[in-house]
Structure formats: structure tokens, C-alpha cells
Amino acid sequence: MSINWMNEVLKRKEDFLKDLKGLLQIRSVLDEGAAKPDAPLGQGVKDALDYMLDLGKKDGFITKNVGDLAGHLEMGEGDELFGILGHVDVVPEGDGWSVDPYSAVIKDGKIYARGSSDDKGPTIAAYYGMKIVKELGLPLEKRVRLIIGTDEESDWRGVDHYFEKEEMPSVGFVPDADFPIIYAEKGISDYDIVQPVHTESDAKLQLRSFQSGRRYNMVPDFAEVRLKLHSGAEDIIQKYQVFLKESGLDGDASENEDELILTLVGVSAHGAEPRNGKNAGIFMAQFLQALELDVQGKKFVDTVASFFNQSRGEIFDIVYQDEVSGDLTINAGIMNYNKETGGRIGLNMRYPVTFDIDEGKEKIQAVVQENELQLENFTDSKPAYVKKDDPLIQTLQRVYEEQTGENAELLAIGGGTYARALEHGVAFGALFPGREDVMHQKDEYAIVEDLLKATAIYAQAIYELAKADL
Fold this sequence. Notes:
The chain is α+β, with helices and mostly antiparallel strands and about 475 residues long. It has helices at about 5-10, 15-25, 45-60, 120-135, 155-165, 235-245, 280-290, 295-305, 355-370, 390-405, 450-465; strands at about 60-65, 70-75, 80-85, 105, 110, 145-150, 170-175, 175-180, 180-185, 185-195, 205-210, 220, 220-230, 250-255, 260-265, 270, 320, 325, 330-340, 340-350, 375, 385, 410-415, 425, 430, 445.
């Protein structure tokens, strides 16, 4: 059977864009402060889940809401289940957008919105891939299920809950990374370095508060510091302006009674590669190191500043790389300090597939204790890895090459996708080689033509994988 998958996509382009815009216009950011029994992660996240379930119901799929934390859309028959895992939650939009981050406006062939590339655009592409296979009435030997997660950007409560209640697919892919195929994903560990409060005498220049970062997995693009001053504000402001100019960054300084408030604007990026951004908190700490701060404030600032250009585990003596997945990386994603409660630095570590995480944790603990700090909230998500000769890999390679005419190179990433939630799965698109990665950044966008091409790839992949014996 010969099917022109791209032609089938183009027949549905108008509906595709309409459904995509509807999803992108929902601000589905985690909001536990507004949690309700039927919206445990906040109303916006629940609205996005409901949107996908309603879309599936309208188009004739079997739909199921699983505890308002996840859901699925299903088609086909058979004992075996093929799964596609997408997510509809997004990271906070951040500052500095040139358009409304939830307007889903299309300009110059790009659709701009938070989630357009991570992961609402690719999820809709996978959904339309399923829809095309369904509407063509193609024979399948497996059930096909699009699983919708709602907490991928934080703690994975959506898929964790889902797989406590529902069947694990025998094979699957995740449309939430890069094309051609991600066959290896680093392990991911989040943890906090905590500085307890120490009683001390007042100082001429006291660090009252230090705030930077919202998520472990984002390079912070903003920092604010409040300093208690007795005198010398003008001198500090002048030094700060020189620092900003030399660093090529924007910021501001203002006085409020006995306080000096400093702000700094950095460059956000995905925490998987800290070198792609400019960490506002670390740059701010670098400046503060030149000031005569109180002892407790100085200790916090020095700890934060130690991560400047040290994103490969140098601080903890855990520098490591392997041929499969590359370098170990560490991102300082959250930096909070208050003179009354002490300090906390939230770190996001991506470690290679062959790295010994238990040994690594011991080394981290040793350095933390040596510096009279504390290690808390250590989490570990193990690496994902499927061998190159696996039938799943070979099928996806063939599909990609047939649809694009390009070599389906196998990739390894530091980002964590839902592939690690599957017993047998990989990440498959939807960012094409050579395209700018704007996930988690201001003015996030997806190229409409690329989303349509991804839909054709997904449609063929779904058909091939659901009829094949893998």
C-alpha cells in the first residue's frame, strides 16, 4: 500500500492549526497554589488535559481521564499496546517576550507561544498522525494510545500516576526532543544545597535577600538582591553599572530607605546545557563577591559564584563523560537566600548513561559537608537507552529516511523525556536538525512547515509500528 503521508497532512492543515492554536492559548503552567480535587496541578493544566480529551472524543477516539493527572486517546484492537507519550504542561513564560506568550500568533511561517515546540506542537502533530491513520481505515495489529501527561516539566506526577493505574505499552516513542532519533538520554538528578542560619553581629553591608530562578531545569534569566546599607550606595551603584557593561548584561539599581535593590537580566536556556544561557543568579553572585558582605551573606554568594563556568561537575570532583551520551552537566536553577532563614541552591544534574550515580552522590555529599552545608531533596531519574540494532530503532530510521530523504542519525541528549517512563521507547522528534532550539526560552516558536512534516513522519511511524511485530 502506497500512501502519500504529506498529502494527507496538507488536507488537514487548516484543522491542524485551529486545534494547535486552541491548545497553545491555554496557560497550562503548574499552579499548586490553586489546586482543587479535580485540578490537582492547577486549573490551566487541567484545562489543557480536558482540551486534548475533548478533541479525541470529537474525532472518535476512545478517551479516558486518569485521576485528572493524565489521560489517553486510543484506537485499534489487539492484545499489544503501542504508546505515544506527550505532555501539555509548560514551563513559566518568563519575561521579555515580543508577543503575548499565549496568543499563538503566526508570523513568517512560525507559530509563537509557550509550548509551541515543547511539547504542545509535537503532541498535536502526533495526534494528527494518529488521526490520519484512523481516518484512512488502515489495518492495525496493535492498539495505539496517545498518553497525555501533565507534569513533565516538574515531578512527572502525571505519568507516574498513569502507569500506576494503566497498562504499560510494549513499545512506543515520545515526540518531545529532536529528530532523527534519541536512543540515549542522560540520567537526571535534582538536589538542594542548603546553608543553615548562623547568628552573627550586624555588618556594614548585609545581604538581606537573594532570589533567582523558578525551576531546576531552567537557566535563570532574572535575579534580584536586597542589601541593607548604612552608607556607600552611590559607590556600589557605580561599580554595578561598570560590571553590567563589562558583562554585556542589563540590570538596574535603586534605593528604598535603608535598602539597595539590584536586579539583573540574564539569558534563559534549558538546564540540560547551562552553557547555552547566561545564569542571572551566578552573574549577580560574581558581582557581590567584590563587596564586603556580612559573613553569612558572603558564604552564600561565594557558593553560588563557584558555579561560574563550572557546569561539568568540577566543584564536586565528578567530571565524567562517555561515548554514548557525552558530558555530565550541572545547572544552578534556583538560588534563594534570606538572612532570617538561610540559603538554598537547587541544582539539576544530567549524568551519562554509564555514570555511577551512587558514587557520584557520595562525592557530592562529601564536598557539601566539608563546606558546612547540607544536601537535601536528592532525586534520581535513571538514564534511558535503547540499543542501535533494536527493531524499534530500525523502523523509525527507515520511516524518517523515507519521509525526509536524509540520514537518520542516532542522538544522545541531556534532556529528560517521557521515553524513560517507557520500558521500551525512545524520543522521536520533533525538532529537525539545524533548527534553533528555543524550548524554555522567550519567544518560543515552532516552524509550521516542520510541524506538518513531523505529522507525516508520525503518521507513517504509527502505522508501521502498530502493524509490525516488535
